[in-house]
Amino acid sequence: MAFLSATLDRVKPSPTIAVTTKAAELKAAGRDIIGLGAGEPDFDTPDNIKAAAVAAIAAGKTKYTAVDGIPELKQAICAKFKRDNALDYTPAQVTVGTGGKQVLYNAFMATLNAGDEVIIPAPYWVSYPDMVLLAGGTPVTIEATLAADFKITADQLEAAITPATKWFLFNSPSNPTGAGYSWDELKALTDVLLRHPHVWVMTDDMYEHLAYGNFKFCTPAQVEPRLYDRTLTVNGVSKAYAMTGWRIGYAAGPEMLIKAMRKVQSQSTSNPCSVSQYAAVEALNGTQDFLAPNNALFERRRDLVVDMLNQAPGVVCPRPEGAFYVYPSIAGCIGKTSAAGVLIDNDETFAAALLEETGVAVVFGAAFGLSPNFRVSYATSDAALEEACKRIVGFCKSLN
Fold first, then answer.
1. Contacts of 259 (CB under 8 A, 6+ apart)
2. Which residues are in the Aminotransferase class I/classII large domain (predicted)?
3. 39, 266, 330, 388: which could join 34 in a potential S-S bond, CB 3.0 to 4.6 Å?
4. What is the largest CA-CA distance in the chain?
5. Are 305 and 326 in contact (CB under 8 A)?
6. Is the dihedral of CA 39, 102, 364, 185 positive or negative?
């Protein structure tokens, strides 16, 4: 009798965590490493949010809370959805988890049966397909190519839907591409979903506030209110509020679904950290004045990285609408050999050789379901980004 669960055979460890861990190990060994793998802002949590956490500790708010969130946070989430997205929810329609990942996982665990399909546009966040597999479902990917600006079309979505489709998982702005869907582009997708009432919508809005230029964020239930009763709108405080380590994600949707997700959470982790919840209340209710300057900082970094990477032979790097990632194609590098004699036959080999020969850590595209590409997180200092891009350009110039 096997000791480990056969379920584990269906999934793999997170490649982004593996890259970050490898970079840290090399740096600890004395190598000059620039890590562009981690998807978290490099600046600190705002002072007002930290102060709220300190106040919660001083007030003794360190006990168990309700399984899926304190009332104050659920009220703040309802206010946020109304203020930012014109969506009306009650606290009974809200769940709070230990990061957005747990919220997504709870939803899959609460709804998927063997044979149920989840449509996922690729490139995708590395965890999406594996969470579906862990919950017993079947991921079905739709390829969003560079030529299509990493966005799927209504016709592609229509063609992917079957009687077994249970969820359409949507992420805009996207991790890993930064691509953002306009109102009209999203309306074309929601029009398809209206024709298939058995398909639910799970939308990952974690990068909502990281939108640049003329791009305006929108979310499916906002664009098409008739989908409200079968949409789970997921968000969190990790990215916009620089609170990745605080581990607070949340979602709102039909009360029946929220109750089912609460049941899953009650038998797994129970409540998220109490102190983090009080900090998240301040994040959502407090000043939002830092969002605009932070966005301006990220937009400048985006432009720096895009402009520099497009100087690399064999690389094509589009300019994304949001998030803090770029997803350049290295199609022009495939088949060439590095200065150290490594044949670049795929994007995983490219990323490995880049790390070994230049000390720049990126995540290879196959991890996100679309090759040949790699992901750069520009959520780090201008100086580090400029040096890393110089090394990448030099590496590509050395290929022959």
1. none
2. 32-392
3. 388
4. 64
5. yes
6. negative
Per-residue pLDDT tens over the stretch 125-181 = 999 999 999 999 999 999 999 999 999 999 999 999 999 999 999 999 999 999 999
SS3 label, residue 142 = strand
Same-domain status, 364 and 244: no
Mode of pairing for the β-strands spanning 94-97 and 374-377: unpaired
Cα dihedral sign for 154, 156, 162, 168? negative
Nearest in space to 45 (alpha carbons), one of 321, 296, 247, 299: 247
Q: What is the pLDDT of residues 35-46, one digit of tens each?
A: 998 888 998 999
DSSP bridge partners of 250: 96, 235
Q: What is the pTM of this model?
A: 0.95
**Contacts of 28 by beta carbon, 8 Å cutoff, 6+ apart:** none
- The token pair at 84 is 């930012």
Across 123-270, where does the E strand assignment appear?
138-143, 165-171, 200-204, 231-236, 249-252
Residue 330: per-residue pLDDT: 98
- Where is the domain boundary, 285, 315, 337? 285
52 falls within a domain: no
CA angle, corner 238, sides to 179 and 388, nearest 5?
Answer: 60
What would the mean pLDDT of 269-287 be, rounded to a whole number?
Answer: 98
Question: Using one digit for the tens of pLDDT, what is the confidence trace for 94-137?
Answer: 999 999 999 999 999 999 999 999 999 999 999 999 999 999 99
CATH of the domain at 26: 3.90.1150.10
State the residue range of the domain holding 331.
Answer: 6-44+290-398
